[in-house]
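This section describes the prediction task in plain terms. A model, or a person checking by hand, is given the sequence of a single protein chain and must write out its three-dimensional structure as a string of tokens. No templates, partner chains or ligands are provided. The sample shown here is typical of the held-out split.
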Amino acid sequence: AELQSYSALKTWTATLLPSTCDPGAYFKEENGQVVCILLVYVDDILIACPRFMS
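The expected answer:
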């Protein structure tokens, strides 16, 4: 199951756009709107998807 989720994560991250001001931040855009933000830290990863949280 881990391998499956890893390949799904790789596919998902391939659609992300790197931030120009923060090397550890990536954005996912849909229809010109940012729908998810991925923050990569040294020992942690934070994914924020405001649309899914509301």
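For orientation: Residues 16 and 28 are 5 Å apart (CA to CA).
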